[in-house]
Every structure is written in C-alpha cells, then in structure tokens.
Amino acid sequence: MSPNTAAAASPAAAAQAQAQAEDWLVDAALAPLADGSLAPLYAGAAAGELTLPFCAACGLALELEQRACDGCGATDIRWRPVERAGSVHAVTLVHRREPGLVRVTEPYPVLDIELASGHRLIMTTLTATGSAPAIGRPVTIGFRHVGGVAVPAASLDPAGADDSPATSGTTPVPGTTPAPDPSAAGLPAAAHTSSEPEVSP
Ligand SMILES: [Zn+2]
C-alpha cells in the first residue's frame, strides 16, 4: 500500500490527518498528561512550538522538572519557545516488546538531543526507524501525536522538519500500566546533565 495516501491533500489537512492518526511507536493509552507539570511544553507543542523552561532570573536553560536554577538558585521559571534545532548527543536503541502499548516489534531509538537553546531533551524520532542515528547528527524538532497530545520528536530528514505539527509520538505513562521510564518510550524527559536533582520547594 502506498505510504503517501495521507499526503495528497493540503498541508493543513494532511497535518490534521496525521494528528489524528496513530503514533508509530506507542498506543494512545500512553498519552502524557498534557495538564501536568509539563503543561507549558504540551501547550506549546500543540501549537507547533518547542517550549522549554528557563530561569527567570538569570536566563539559564533548565531541565524539564527542575525547580531551582543551578546558576543562581532562583525558583522563578519562565517557559518560552526555542529554536527547534539540535543535534544527537546520545542514542539508546531500545529492544522492547509490549504488545498493545508499543506498536513496533523491532528495536527503536531513543535520542538524547542537545538543543540549540542549551537544553537537553529525550525523545524518539518523528517517524519509525530501526537504526540509531549518528552521534552529532543535526536534527530538527517536530511533533508526534499520542492520543491527541503533541510531543517533541526528532526529524532526521532536513527537508521534512518543517513546521507541520503533524506526526505524533511519545509515550506517557498511564496510571494502570506498569510505568516504564517515560524516556524509554520516547517521551519528553530531561536528559540529566550536571544539574542536581530537583530541589523541593
Ligand atoms: Zn538562574
């Protein structure tokens, strides 16, 4: 069957069709909670923007769940859209079979992306691939849709990295499912660098 079936209509229609399509990697049951602590990320993603946290005091890029700035100790966090560009910092090829939740039966890559904004973010690829992209490879950030929630995903195709908030893919952890590490499902997660773990307010 032609893989181009959905690409015929207008870009907007195609994007919508893709947004409603099933994710290549995980079942809709694994959709992340769009109104949880990462609400600004998901709200931005729904609009086709990559929105990430910064220290409101000194501007340092913060990890997704970080509560206090490593640089100045401030706890005021500001989320704002960043450039959707980065490069592959590290790759894990995940061998996982979980029928009903994970759609693929072949290994899939989970990428640690170093973004131009200074953030590091865990995600999978925009479209299915069974191989690990090279370290250092430039990527652009697009969006998969899991159960109607847009999640960041790395596009390895320079020409396909456009703004289409089209594809979906990420895997949140539902309450009733054995909770896998979200990052192992290609969901947004901070790539822990040298920062300390989150500090309780
Ligand atoms: Zn700061």
Outline of this structure?
The protein has a domain of 129 residues.
List keywords for this structure.
201 residues, mainly beta, six-stranded antiparallel beta sheet, two-stranded antiparallel sheet, 2 helices, 8 strands, disordered N terminus, disordered C terminus, binds zinc ion
The assigned structural class equals: mainly beta
Small molecules bound: zinc ion
Shape: globular
Mean pLDDT: 82
Count every helix, treating DSSP H or I runs of 4 or more residues as helices.
2
Within the largest sheet, what's the order of strands?
Answer: 7-6-3-4-5-8
Radius of gyration: 16 Å
Span of the ends, CA to CA: 54 Å
The sequence of SSEs as H and E is HHEEEEEEEE
Instruction: Describe the main β-sheet briefly.
Output: 6 strands, antiparallel
Low-confidence segments, given as residue ranges, are: 1-8, 160-179, 194-201
Q: Give the fraction of residues assigned to helices.
A: under 10%
Proportion of residues in extended strands: 25-35%
Quaternary structure state of the chains depicted: single chain
